[in-house]
Amino acid sequence: MKQSRLLRTGFTTGSCASAAAKAAAVFLLTGKSPETVEIHLPDGQTAAWEPRYFAESGWGVRKDAGDDPDVTDGAWICASVKMVDGKNWEKLLAHGRGYFLEEFPDFYLDGGTGIGIAQLPGLSCPVGHYAINPVPRRMILSAVAEACTAAGWEGRLHVIVSIPEGAVLAEKTFNPRVGIRGGISVLGTTGIVEPMSETALLETIRLEIHMKAVSGLRRLLMTPGNYGETFLLETLGVPLGEAVKCSNFVADAVEAAASEGFTRMLFVGHIGKLVKVAGGVRNTHSAYGDRRMELMETLTREVLDAGADGEDLLGRIRGCNTTEEAVGILVENGLAQAVLTHTAVAVKRWMEHWSQGKTTVEVIVFSSAYGIAGMTERETRILQGVL
């Protein structure tokens, strides 16, 4: 969905960390508490903050994510900078979990409290290192270099970025699912947060699919959300977190899976979402239209030989407020299993079309209220391969 131009932009965690690091460097090298700090963003703009000193965390700036619903909005992004002697410098290079960049040969960038650690391959950060992405690494050290130049100081510095609330905030993000543990990632490419949360969520889903591919999986388990995960856990014994949750981005997720080389997929979802997919709806968010009852009627009509009684049943389906209510009517008429199975077949057809024939998709469509599932024929065999 196109966002309004009136939405307010904000700053990335990387921008805030750069400002905090510069404030810490200014204080270390001049002994003066900076009232404001200014940094240069990758797109050529400049931005300024009023930093604050914290005894435990060093200098910090408060993140303003603009109108984007970022979980780190309002969090304090902090940094400390200290001089380092030759012996400790060698220890950092040999055993540190941070970063040394050749363009900044006198600085070592580290993570501290609330910064996550990468634990799986395929991320922008090496396994075992702090989750500080490449662009923020350069931004942070560049800001420190500006402070050094202004102070006329040369020497080695150890820069430590922290987010005091990071461990708690990380539980509200996708970080644990993609293999980042213990805290938040320091992200950003332009330094600016555009209020486009759908884009950010889609990129996270693509990353999770990529991580599954990098781990060596050849078959992918996917579900739109929590209902699907609960069904997998309670019905099939699949642990939470095993399936990629694609939210409303069904077609985009299928395309991403195909591009990552997945040739087989099991897709499990509630009838409320999947009835839309059965009608060829690429994004199931209500903002893109809600034709659930019309589609339920169509799928039922395709299963039913509609005589006079059939038309009455179809009218009842069309008049329902929820898909679960419609399934209840189908249960009364002995048609629920057939319609859900027909729905699964339609979903399979669309998803394989979106994959351009690269991925064979098997589908389970279920009703939470009635405990009924419809599935494509090869579901059992692909289950054995996925689980």
Number of strands: 16
The total of helices stands at 14
Sheet-strand content, in percent, reads 15-25%
Return the structural class: alpha/beta
In short:
Helices cover 42% and strands 18% of the residues.
Key terms for this structure?
disordered C terminus, alpha/beta, 387 residues, five-stranded mixed sheet, 14 helices, elongated
Textual characterization of the structure:
By secondary structure, this protein is an alpha/beta fold. A hairpin with a 3-residue loop joins β4 and β5. It is built from 14 helices and 16 strands. The relative contact order is 0.11. The longest helix has 19 residues, at 336-354.
Q: What is the topological layout?
A:
Layout: E1 10-11, H1 13-30, E2 37-40, E3 46-49, E4 52-54, E5 58-62, E6 76-83, H2 86-95, E7 107-111, E8 117-118, H3 134-151, E9 157-162, H4 166-170, H5 175-178, E10 180-181, E11 192-193, H6 197-214, E12 219-223, H7 226-236, E13 244-245, H8 250-259, E14 264-270, H9 271-278, H10 292-303, H11 308-318, H12 323-332, H13 336-354, E15 360-367, E16 372-375, H14 379-386
Parallel strand pairs: 7-9, 12-13, 12-14, 14-15
Antiparallel strand pairs: 1-11, 2-3, 4-5, 5-6, 6-9, 8-10, 15-16
Helix pairs in contact: 1-3, 6-8, 9-13, 10-11, 10-13, 11-12
